Amino acid sequence: MREKRNRSSSEPGPGSLNPYAMLQFFSWATISCFNPYVTVTLTDRGLNNSGIGLILTLNALVSIVAQPAWGLISDRIHSIRKVFIICLAGSSLAIMLIPRAQSFSQLIVLYPLVLFFLSPVAPLLDVWTYQGGSLRPGSSYGSLRLWGSLGFALCLIPLGRMVTLTGLNVTSYSFVFLAVVSVLISLTLPAVQQKQISPVMQPSTGSLKISALLGQKAYLSYLFVIFLAFISIQPMFGFQARLMLEVGGNQELYMWTMALAALSEIPVFIWSKRLISRFRPASLIIISFAVFIIRMVIYSAVTEPWHIILTSLIHGFSYALFLVATVSYIDNLAPQGMKSTALTIASAIYIGLSGMVGNTITGRLMDSIGIRPVYLLGALATTLALVLFILTLLPGSRLIRKA
Fold first, then answer.
1. Where do the CATH 1.20.1250.20 domains begin and end in the chain?
2. Cβ-contact 248, 305 below 8 angstroms
3. Minimal CA–CA distance to 318: which of 326, 308, 329, 330?
4. How does DSSP classify residue 216?
5. CATH homologous superfamily of domain 210-403?
6. Rounded Cα distance, 83 and 73, in Å
7. What's the whole-model pTM score?
8. Contact between 248 and 304 (Cβ < 8 Å)
């Protein structure tokens, strides 16, 4: 009787739905109403590859500034929830203007404005999941993050059908509705006290100088490696809709591709804890880079839409595996108290800075030599990054493991 009474008064059992899982599900469902449709909408407005590349570059530039800025505000006011709500509200207001935007001058202002508010949502959600999830027995980042992938996929499939039947404007209205649901769920979550935060995401303190982090040669080397790799990888995602249209596909097939890609992440997140405990993070990063290379080589040779759809099934072994391994790898490299800062900087590098450079170059190259040859060039660049990682970082990883 005592055991039953104690269990009922503590954390939810295995059959209970974790509120952080619900927040992941609906937040990523919200994001799925915008991110996959950026290139699709810009193509629908008549922009060429160079114009799309310019807007994607500005989106990345804004993300570089917005993510650390909103993260700093969150640290200053000691509340992820408030910043999370402000970002979803701001992005919702901006997205409601997109259906009215038709000219390039309007689009080039609106999309970076949306990203100013939307780009911090995923990093804030990850930190919040780490903080809250670590307090619940049996919970882990992977077991909670998989609900985000599920929400992304399950929303994309019906939304893609709705877009086919009613047009692209439905994505903006769906975004706002799901953003409201996400905000309501966030209001139900308890505040996490600073002393309760898991060490992996412990915020940096003012007494710890950033020079302690930037003095880590292995960390700086890894930043350079992921910057080089994602110059090719980010455009691979950004221009995938154009590739689908190039081989005779349509918007609905592209949405199925994105949905299957998101579903392929789930097994990786489920097994993330076992993968990290059994293999070195550096080894998992090597595997993820190798799969990225295979994907780009396949994209350079596709001739039918189903080729792209099938290739999306290995997305989990590229991006999801990279994400899980990178979190663990950087956690090993960063000094205590600087781990959150280290992860934020890395995210700004491979999402923002790499995207800014890569989308600019890729858009111009695609207008000059075509879409598929650019994917082959991307595979070569990622191979160079992989070789560099093996040569300069893998020995350091072994030393860290021994220590």
1. 18-189, 210-403
2. yes
3. 326
4. -
5. MFS general substrate transporter like domains (1.20.1250.20)
6. 8
7. 0.74
8. yes
* Cβ neighbours of residue 403 closer than 8 Å, sequence gap 6 or more: none
How many residues make up the chain in this entry?
A: 403
pLDDT in tens, the chain (403 residues): 444 444 333 344 333 468 888 999 999 999 999 988 888 899 888 888 788 888 888 888 888 888 778 877 877 777 788 989 999 999 999 999 999 988 888 999 999 999 999 988 988 887 787 666 655 656 667 778 889 889 998 998 888 889 888 888 999 999 999 999 999 999 988 765 444 444 444 444 444 456 766 777 888 888 999 999 999 888 888 788 888 888 888 878 888 888 899 889 889 888 888 888 888 888 899 999 999 999 999 999 999 999 999 999 999 999 999 988 888 888 777 776 666 667 777 887 888 788 888 877 887 888 888 888 889 999 999 999 999 998 875 554 444 444 3
Tokens linked to 112: 């970076």
Tell me the C-alpha distance between 119 and 332, whole Å. 26
* Residue 102: φ, ψ to 5°: -125, -35
Residues 147 and 263: beta-carbon distance below 8 Å:
no
- The answer to whether the beta carbons of residues 398 and 329 sit under 8 Å apart is no
Is the four-CA dihedral 28, 33, 38, 43 of positive or negative sign?
Answer: positive
Q: For domain 18-189, is the CATH number 3.40.630.30?
A: no
